[in-house]
Hints:
The protein is α/β, with parallel strands linked by helices. It contains 17 helices and 10 strands. The chain has helices spanning 2-6, 10-35, 79-93, 118-127, 140-148, 174-183, 219-229, 241-252, 269-313, 319-332, 336-346, 353-366, 370-385, 393-409, 413-426, 431-446, 453-472, and strands at 38-45, 52-59, 98-104, 108-115, 158-165, 187-192, 199-203, 211-215, 233-235, 261-267. The strands form 3 sheets. A 6-stranded mixed beta sheet has the order 4-3-2-5-6-9, with helices on both faces. A hairpin with a 3-residue loop joins strand 3 (98-104) and strand 4. Helix 13 packs antiparallel against helix 14. It is elongated and about 120 Å long. The two termini are 15 Å apart.
Amino acid sequence: xxxxxMRLAHPLKRKLILSDLxxxxxVIFAVIAVINPKWGTEYxxxxxxxxxxxxxxxxxxxxxxxxxxxxxxxxTQTRLERGVLIAKESIISVSGARYGTxxxxxxxxxxxxxxxxNESALLxxxxxxxxxxxxxxxxxxxxxxxxxxxFLDTSPAKKVIVLISDGEAIDGILRNAVNRCARDxxxxxxxxxxxxxxxxxxxxxxxxxxxIVISRKETAVMRGIAERTGGIYIDGxxxxxxRELSSHLLSLVQDTERGAGKRIPKQRRPLFIILALIAxxxxxxxxxxxxxxxxxxxxxxxxxxxxxxxxLLFSSCSEGKLLLLEANYLSSRGRFDDALVSYFKALNHxxxxxYAEYGIGLVDYLLDREEDALQRYADSRKLLDRMTGxxxxxxxxxxxxxxxxxxxxxxxxxxxxxSFKEALRIDPRRLEAKRNLELAIMSINMEAKPDNRxxxxxxxxxxxxxxxxxxxxxxxxxxxxAPEEEFTGHxx
Length: 492
């Protein structure tokens, strides 16, 4: 393996070594990035948040659907609609605090846990209506217990329940829930909805007669709840109820210290991620650059070879030969479209057709149309098969040799090796074909399975040396010996 590698061209060896080096650097940088190194310090200001936890406990019983809530709106709002509007105004005005929402009818339910994401509470309030819960009775005790259960004892923030209701309770013992909140330091601020005179509620019973019930705002109940727990009573029918609630919440806020911060270790992971990406890109770019340089070198030699072929192998200047000379010149100047026109015209001349097919294949290869180039080389070989075997030896060789180059670049090492063998059968003296055949067989061995790689590699080498021995009846010449001919093709 080492001897084979040392025989490669020096520029290619250097590029392969650099490519491997950059890939190793990529692996090193990637591993360091996974470790997440930190060194040095940076200033991290403390996030500014208000020390206030607020749960809006909203009564969604049927009495809250009565449209007797006044306000700035031109139409009559229901008690629930008015209460939701006040809650939303407070959330928007007092930002930076944690908010949650509980709803209750016959039982209490925590709908939105405490969160700094105020949008969650606002979106829930937008969708809230009286159909959110089922049941007939009103149980304010269960509603307050559900709201109080969301607070954490370890939180230093002020704990506030904003009870939005008309104060009517049928089930539960409201006083017990209020006493538990007072004991735990939970403030209940009440927002009383409805009117003093009240409105009718129609309760459909099983009998044909409907029972008429008057529902009114229980001011005394709501005021007593607030006074017992240190909160305030707010009349929800007032236009400034939202501003009053916002001012009250702001007065309870325990602000964290502005500007307070600390120095923390500085993250260095992004730096190594960037370095890893640069190293990986460099490892691939060097290889691609090498392939482009090789291809450019091959194209120059191939064009020169085509010109020499045409000049030496044609002794007379027929129209087809002149077209080939013109096409070769245009191709060497990079005017591929004009060259193709001349090549296609030359196809109409029997003596020039194999060379025209070969020339079109060269242009297709230079334009990265490798499949078309392979087909053109094959068509050129078919036309040559109709001619005498001893004629056009150079063109026969180059058809097979260039076919092998394309297969090798595509990674089809089996077909590449076969093409180089065919080229050597035509001209066993060509050093570049020998080297590329050797590299193709080496690549086949490298792709073999680990368990039989050594055996297959030795078998391939035996076949290769036996073939060369039978063709040339001599041992391969080393690099230090005289070159076998002046012109050599592309050598990987």
